[in-house]
């Protein structure tokens, strides 16, 4: 819809702007309305097309008018802006506005045109025609967009945009998964999760869901183990002079699980972390020894927690026998949750052993080193089936190590494991259904995203004043 024409459809431009804005005072040269006209849609050629266009956009445009008025007043910001927002204020405001537009709810008789456009835009190098069913189509340079997204993941709004594009635009998702430099995108996401203590929960959720979406793709799960990284300076638990992107991803996700177990205890976070690990498990390749150790260490932590809850339940039951008036804590629910997580970890280990045992001697070494951990779960009714393969692998390699004699070096043990992998008949490992989890938005995602987006506008918009006393959409501690 061109803004330079004196007529739009069957109406003079100034009359159309008055109708669209809902006010008599709008100027034909108003920058906001002209900008909307210039980038939103192709010009309607008839009054029928004009009416359809108005139904889809009129409420959206009116709601933006107030926002634009505040922008142009140059009021004092609600909060001190971050350095990145101050250095590129127009880019920051534009991104926030885009997120507001994309998250507007659909009208009763028309979908959100901005969301439709975000869901369907294509690469400038893609010459294939748009389907006639896509009314709001445009093209953009995907390489430039990818590079910008890689550079800007320190901000909530850039991570939310990345999530939106990956989740809703299959063209973007396909393009990104085909890149040979995925580490440029994945590393900033991992750094968000690594510094979970410093991030707000929404930013952590978005980063984690991005990983989950990426791990739905088997090609991604294979390729990340082929990318070797050197000297990851922000990872402080241990010096990692060289590690694959896949092993680093496992380390960071496991660290997030452990942090969540001891601090936030958020089941949603647990579930998505485990789902990402499960999606990757069949393609685990050449796991770094530290990554293999952390997998088993997490299982050890879960095992201790399981035993502690069992002990607490037993003591509580004994105490209740002498005092029937004291209500019992719901240990059964706690036990059920921890057993679900333990089973998932066993399934992840089993999936790796079943599909890529020969690629992961370090995991076998870690299992053998801590084999006593698994003893109590061999006959447990909740884990008996999934323990078969793990028990078989531990028994098989323990026997070979016993035959090799005592006082074996680490190098010698790994050599025996690599030789044993060839000798272990693959048909002795029981096949289980492939572990695959897919991210699905909640039934009413707007209940999460609309308050989140507006909290970002409140906290990040440069030069925009919002009275905190009047805010009802989100709590003031949601930054």
TrEMBL record:
Q: Which InterPro entries match?
A: Dymeclin
Q: Keywords in UniProt for this one?
A: Lipoprotein, Myristate
**Any Pfam family hit:** Dymeclin
Classify the source by domain of life.
Eukaryota
Q: Output the Gene Ontology cellular-component terms.
A: Golgi apparatus
Query: Could you give a single Gene Ontology term from the biological process aspect?
Result: Golgi organization
What family does the database annotate?
Belongs to the dymeclin family.
Question: What PANTHER family does the annotation carry?
Answer: DYMECLIN
Return the protein name: Dymeclin
- Gene that this polypeptide is encoded by: DYM
């Amino acid at each position: 819809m061109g803004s330079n024409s004196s007529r739009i459809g069957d109406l003079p431009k100034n009359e159309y702007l008055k109708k669209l804005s809902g006010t008599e005072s709008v100027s034909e040269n108003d920058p906001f309305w002209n900008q909307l006209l210039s980038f939103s849609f192709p010009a309607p050629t008839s009054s029928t097309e004009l009416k359809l266009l108005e139904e889809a956009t009129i409420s959206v445009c009116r709601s933006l008018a107030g926002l634009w008025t505040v922008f142009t007043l140059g009021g004092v910001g609600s909060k001190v802006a971050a350095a990145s927002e101050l250095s590129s204020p127009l880019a920051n405001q534009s991104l926030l506005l885009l997120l507001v537009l994309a998250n507007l709810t659909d009208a009763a008789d028309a979908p959100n045109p901005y969301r439709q456009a975000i869901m369907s835009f294509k690469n400038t190098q893609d010459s294939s025609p748009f389907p006639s069913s896509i009314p709001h189509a445009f093209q953009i340079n995907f390489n430039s967009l990818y590079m910008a997204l890689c550079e800007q993941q320190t901000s909530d709004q850039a991570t939310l945009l990345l999530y939106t594009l990956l989740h809703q635009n299959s063209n973007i998702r396909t393009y990104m998964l085909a890149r040979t430099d995925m580490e440029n995108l994945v590393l900033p996401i991992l750094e968000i999760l690594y510094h979970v203590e410093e991030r707000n929960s929404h930013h952590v959720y978005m980063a984690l869901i991005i990983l989950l979406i990426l791990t739905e793709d088997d090609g991604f799960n294979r390729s990340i183990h082929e990318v070797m990284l050197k000297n990851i300076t922000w990872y402080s638990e241990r010096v990692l002079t060289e590690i694959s992107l896949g092993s680093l991803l496992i380390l960071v996700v496991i660290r997030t699980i452990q942090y969540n177990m001891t601090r936030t205890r958020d089941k949603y976070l647990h579930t998505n972390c485990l789902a990402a690990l499960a999606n990757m498990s069949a393609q685990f390749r050449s796991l770094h020894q530290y990554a293999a150790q952390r997998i088993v260490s997490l299982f050890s932590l879960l095992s201790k927690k399981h035993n502690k809850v069992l002990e607490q339940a037993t003591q509580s039951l004994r105490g209740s026998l002498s005092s029937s008036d004291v209500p019992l804590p719901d240990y059964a629910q706690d036990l059920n949750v921890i057993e679900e997580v333990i089973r998932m970890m066993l399934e992840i280990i089993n999936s790796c052993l079943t599909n890529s045992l020969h690629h992961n001697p370090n995991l076998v070494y870690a299992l053998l080193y801590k084999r006593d951990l698994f003893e109590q779960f061999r006959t447990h009714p909740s884990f008996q089936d999934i323990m078969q393969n793990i028990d078989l692998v531990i028994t098989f390699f323990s026997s070979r190590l016993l035959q090799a004699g005592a006082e074996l070096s680490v190098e010698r043990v790994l050599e025996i494991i690599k030789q044993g992998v060839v000798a272990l008949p693959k048909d002795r490992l029981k096949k289980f259904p492939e572990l695959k989890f897919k991210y699905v938005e909640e039934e009413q995602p707007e209940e999460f995203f609309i308050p989140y987006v507006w909290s970002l506008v409140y906290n990040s918009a440069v030069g925009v004043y919002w009275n905190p006393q009047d805010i009802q959409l989100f709590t003031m501690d949601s930054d």
